[in-house]
Design a protein that fits this description.
Structural class: alpha/beta
Protein name: LacI family DNA-binding transcriptional regulator
Keywords: DNA-binding, Transcription, Transcription regulation
CATH topology of the largest domain: 434 Repressor (Amino-terminal Domain)
Largest sheet: 6 strands, parallel
Helix content: 25-40%
Number of strands: 23
Radius of gyration: 29 Å
Strand order of the largest sheet: 13-12-14-15-16-22
Strand content: 15-25%
Shape: elongated
GO molecular function, one term: transcription cis-regulatory region binding
Number of helices: 13
InterPro entries: HTH_LacI, LacI/GalR-like_sensor, Lambda_DNA-bd_dom_sf, Peripla_BP_I
Length: about 425
């Protein structure tokens, strides 16, 4: 009798089972005992009995690398009387060694039941976790994903498509050719879909309706399961015309019954103002983008209302212009001519805020000692390169993408959620307000 080496949690590595590589030993919740699950190389299994503090399992000799396999595994539980009685579940399931078949030989490929056993879940749960469907906890999906990666599990794409009627691809339409907002959304979408081996097809419409229709026809020809639509503005857009489920990320649909995921811009603007008030700033101004943009309007309205509600109204009306550093510089000059003793500036974007900081430094005013400055967006290209780094409002665009992808999977599975989901923003405090 040889003792199985110890390990952490419910998983151990037993080097002696396979002379050509270690095997993974895990406690199977479905079976209720320890089983040898997998090795990532062709495996030569030695005959013997292996002991853990609670269970005993045995193997028979065999060379999986030459196509013989899977190797059967006997398993029994330790009883107080010292007898080892094989579990009924083990008799039914025939616990076995599973080999991925990498390298020489024709070993049986890893199946979903093997992934489920290593992850400690039912096969149906593992399938849902890898396909991105079902109501599962994130930690469960991640555990299954790690198990699949450890075993080298590759879903049969053709078989899955035929059996499910799905292509396991989704389209992502964007008007943001720069990628400033689209890139984190795409990363969030891929994080949510990657565990289910769902591919994302990115299409840049460049704000061209003809190009958008072309991409939609192309995605339809590829039989995508659904589409995520995003853009660089928060102005509501016309809904796209397609026969598959659609979720709008960051830029909502005009149609209230559509599914949209947006950020709480008003809440973010109010949080930035409250931060300035908490620092004792009472002569606050607001500089933002053009009134043509919904983002500029909503942020300015929120700041104005919150300032009046706090009994500390803005020292001047919101200054509207472009989303640029140049506008930040010019707007500050206009502001100082009206209110020379302003002690804080709330900006509608990081670009504007960086321009304000640069101009203040040129005029010999210290940031934040003389004038505190806040931005909006937490765009690291601007926020971190500013001198000093900007206190700003983070939009959680990565989470926007993740949430949109989950909602799309639910819609594809026949569980649509109409309406708008509003995700919170958060304040990132840096040197432009706190020295």
């Amino acid at each position: 009798m040889r003792a199985a080496p110890g390990g952490t949690g419910d998983r151990r590595v037993v080097a002696g089972v396979g002379r050509t590589g270690p095997a993974v030993v895990a406690r199977s919740r479905a079976v209720g005992c320890w089983v040898v699950l997998a090795t990532r190389a062709p495996l030569v299994v030695e005959e013997g009995r292996w002991e853990t503090p609670e269970h005993v399992f045995s193997t028979v000799a065999g060379d999986v690398g030459r196509g013989q396999g899977p190797i059967r595994l006997g398993c029994s539980s330790r009883r107080p009387a010292g007898r080892h009685v094989r579990h009924a579940a083990c008799r039914r399931r025939r616990c076995r060694v599973v080999v991925t078949g990498r390298g020489a030989g024709r070993a049986r490929p890893v199946r979903i039941v093997d992934v489920a056993a290593l992850a400690g879940v039912a096969p149906g749960t593992a399938s849902k976790a890898l396909s991105g469907s079902g109501q599962l906890r994130d930690e469960t999906r991640e555990r299954v994903r790690r198990a699949a990666e450890q075993l080298g599990f590759t879903p049969d794409g053709v078989g899955r498509a035929l059996s499910s009627g799905r292509s396991f691809t989704v389209g992502l339409l964007t008007t943001d050719s720069i990628g400033r907002f689209t890139l984190p959304v795409v990363l969030g979408v891929e994080d949510a879909l990657g565990a289910g081996d769902v591919a994302v097809l990115l299409c840049d419409t460049r704000d061209d309706p003809l190009r958008e229709r072309h991409h939609l026809r192309s995605l339809a020809a590829r039989r995508v399961d659904g589409v995520v639509v995003t853009g660089r503005r928060t102005d509501p857009r016309e809904p796209v015309r397609t026969d598959v489920p659609v979720v709008y990320a960051f830029q909502p649909s005009r149609r209230p019954e559509d599914t949209s995921v947006v950020v709480d811009e008003r809440g973010g603007a109010v949080a930035a103002l409250a931060h300035l008030h908490a620092l004792g700033r009472r002569r606050v101004a607001h500089i933002t983008g053009s009134e043509r943009h919904a983002a500029a309007r909503s942020r300015a309205e929120a700041v104005t209302a919150a300032a009046e509600g706090a009994g500390v109204p803005l020292v001047a009306g919101p200054l509207h212009g472009s989303w640029s550093e140049e506008w930040g510089r010019r707007a500050l000059d206009l502001l100082l001519r009206q209110v020379p003793d302003v002690d804080a500036v709330s900006c509608g974007s990081d670009q504007i805020a960086r321009g304000v900081c640069d101009r203040l430094r040129e005029l010999g005013r210290s940031v934040p000692d003389d004038v505190a400055v806040t931005g909006f967006d937490d765009w690291d290209v601007m926020a971190l390169a500013s001198r000093p780094p900007l206190t700003t409002v983070g939009l959680e665009m990565h989470e926007v993408g993740r949430t949109a992808a989950r909602l799309l999977l639910d819609a594809v599975a026949g569980r649509p959620r109409p309406g708008t989901v509003v995700l919170p923003t958060h304040l990132v405090v840096r040197g432009s307000t706190v020295g």
